[in-house]
Amino acid sequence: MALRSRTERDGSFAGNRVERAIIDIGSNTVRLVIYGGSSRAPVTVFNEKVVARLGREIAQTGQLADEAVDLALRGLRRFALLLEELEIETIDVVATAAVREADNGGKFLAAIRQFGLAPRLLSGEGEARTSAMGAIGAFPNIEGVVADLGGGSLELVSVADQAPGAMSSLPLGTLRLPDFRGNNAHDQRRLIEDEINKAKWLDTAVPSLTLVGGTWRAMAAVAMEKRGYPLTDPHGFTLSRIEAQELAEGLSAASASELTNYSRLSQMRAGYLADAGALLGVLLDRIGPQNVVFSSWGLREGVLFDELDAAAKAQDPLLAGVGEFANLRGTPPILATRVAAWTVGALPPGSHGSERVRLASTMLALASMQIEPNLRTDIAMDWALHKRWIDVDDCGRAMMAAAVSANKRECNMPAMLRDLASEDQIEQAICWGLAIRLCRRLGGRSTRVFNASSLSIDAGKLVLAIDSDLVGLFGQPSEKDLQLLSQRLGLEAVCTIRN
Question: Is 236 helix (H, G, I), strand (E, B) or coil?
Fold first, then answer.
């Protein structure tokens, strides 16, 4: 494919620099995803799929169906042209179970090459490992089993110490699960168990079962809607083993027509969930995880993460993602770091939030100042709560939302935040936001203010110390901000002059 110079396409796409693209040729869908943002926490800026169902006849004929191939190639032709027009240089094309197992898979790949694309056929082990790397990239402390459910296969991988271990690829994809129904639910369970038991390495009582794939995420959407969950992104949504078993049992007994009543469920996914529920039930009984975590990162993100060098992999994914996002909105990381360092003096002993979450909150709060005042709070809280940040839990999201709201001096928090974090944690985050407000309003973006002033707690007092030549910066607005923060902390506000 002829590609133009990258220097000719400098700029941004949907607020993120376009860096690379992945075409994922799966058994059910053929998908193009274009990524921007941080390499450690890439952001999807374009996502399009073709539901070709390439693997729908593999079990019966051993072939990719002609109609499915035609539909897939039409989509791939469009993807190739689109990528050329967008001048994207780094393109990965990966094909998985259906193409791997089909007798005419090689012919299909040859047709794709005519578009200037270079498809890579993953082995079952390669697919499993790459999916696991995606989950590891999203959850650096993951330990247990990753289960990636695609159209043609189920990949099971053990993970620990940020590395994949034993793995198996089983013919339990969503397009094949109907073949395991048998005459009744008991037959279905027995047939699925027979396949799962082929992964002889599976341990029992693992810490977590991480579910990767669109059908699992649809299952999470059902659970979130049933619960009235305040967040919208299924990534990171976690259920206890008991909760997951109840969900699996309910879905396995439901009809597709019943499931289409859920607002976030497509008709296609609704048709897969009963069988997927039966599969999940078997997995839960087989490995006995303490909890079940849903991941939006999988094969595609695994390709990206696996290609990073060691230093990039070691970056904090939350700070990498929020940092890039804020930088594109006028908040350089060095500025946020200075503000976070200046405000740390207002943290009382026994603070409830992590420093990484506080720094992320600072980045979002400062970036939100680029938004019109009447929109600022709502948009910034949506960023904190609903944008797909990586490696932050619900409590961390609630604290970020409280901080960005308090930065706008709005401290009456919606009840939903208290469903996600404790009262003490919310109060701590409000103080973060008020301290950020004081810092940014005291000196604007003056770099000198960070050295010429300080904030600290001393003997029951909140002390703002300012060098004598800049004491004039302490005006009425700053005095009000200091008073508001001190009252929140239960301290006396004091401003002192340093010689």
Answer: coil
For the chain, the farthest-separated pair of C-alpha atoms sits apart, in whole angstroms, at 87
Mean pLDDT for all residues in the chain: 92
**Do 28 and 138 belong to one domain?**
no
The values of phi and psi at residue 488, to 5°, are -65, -35
pLDDT confidence of residue 89: 85
Domain co-membership, 324 together with 425 = yes
Looking at residue 351, its pLDDT comes to 67
Residues 150, 128: Cα–Cα separation, whole Å: 11
Domain assignment of residue 306, yes or no: no
Reduced to 3 states (helix: H, G, I; strand: E, B; else coil), residue 333 is helix
Amino acid at 138: A
Structure tokens belonging to residue 409: 């001096």
Considering the domain architecture, whether residues 297 and 399 belong to the same structural domain is answered as no
Do 100 and 140 form a contact (C-beta atoms < 8 A)?
no
* Structure-token pair, residue 479: 């005095």
What pLDDT is stored for residue 394 in this prediction? 95
217: enclosing H helix or E strand: helix 214-227
Q: How many folded domains does the chain comprise?
A: 3
What is residue 10's predicted lDDT score, i.e. its pLDDT?
43
Task: Please give the structure tokens belonging to residue 54.
Answer: 């390439």
pLDDT higher than 80, residue 343? yes
* Helix and strand element counts for the chain (H, E): 21, 14
* Amino acid identity at 455: L
Least confident of 172-186, 249-263, 318-332, 339-353: 339-353
CA distance 385 to 230: 9
Summarised one tens digit per residue, pLDDT across range 7-22 is 333 444 445 667 799 9
What the block records as the tokens of 125 is 């082990």
What is the average pLDDT across 434-453? 93
- Cα–Cα nearest to 421, from 404, 397, 443: 397
Q: Both 296 and 149 in a single domain?
A: yes
Report the alpha-carbon distance of residue 129 to residue 139 in Å, rounded. Answer: 15
Within a 13 Å sphere around the CA of 228, how many CA atoms are in the beta-carbon half?
2
Question: Which of 121, 154, 186 represents a domain boundary (last residue)?
Answer: 121
Q: Are 42 and 27 in contact (CB under 8 A)?
A: no
pLDDT at residue 3 in the model: 35
Residue 464 lies in domain: 317-498
Question: Residue 349 falls within a domain, yes or no?
Answer: yes
pLDDT at 70: 97
Asked whether the beta carbons of 105 and 99 are under 8 A apart, the reply is: yes
CA-to-CA distance for 426 and 357, rounded, in angstroms? 13
Is residue 387 assigned to a domain?
A: yes
d(CA 294, CA 223): 11
